[in-house]
Specification:
114 residues, 7 strands, Thrombin, subunit H, mainly beta, globular
Length: 114
């Protein structure tokens, strides 16, 4: 079974764009429906003994060739993840075809617990 068949959870890709004119900056957002699977990659506990931790996640995204930029957000099940750097296209090693997009993300809101 290909990984593309496992990426079946609906989500929203939220892109913020800032434009400048001679007077001020204007921020706009756009949303795109995607399918995404997010899985934990690593976790680092805070050294001060606090109750928070820095968790890094991998996001697997369809449709293939979706552009993911630094600062883009993925909203899924009440949780917002923010991209840390640009996403990259992943190819099926057997066929060489573009399969999906992968990105490194951090959870910025929500707990992901129902």
């Amino acid at each position: 079974m290909s990984i593309a068949k496992l990426i079946n959870r609906p989500a929203k890709l939220v892109r913020r764009t800032v434009s400048e004119d001679d007077f001020d900056q204007k921020a706009t957002t756009s949303e795109m429906d995607i399918f995404c699977w997010v899985s934990a990659r690593s976790r680092k506990e805070q050294e001060d003994g606090g109750e928070t931790s820095d968790a890094v996640f991998n996001a697997y995204i369809l449709p293939a060739d979706t552009e993911i930029r630094t600062g883009d957000a993925i909203d899924q099940d009440g949780v917002r993840y923010e991209a840390e750097g640009a996403g990259w296209n992943a190819r099926n090693p057997r066929t060489g075809r573009l399969s999906h997009v992968e990105a490194t993300v951090k959870r910025v809101t929500g707990t992901g617990e129902a």
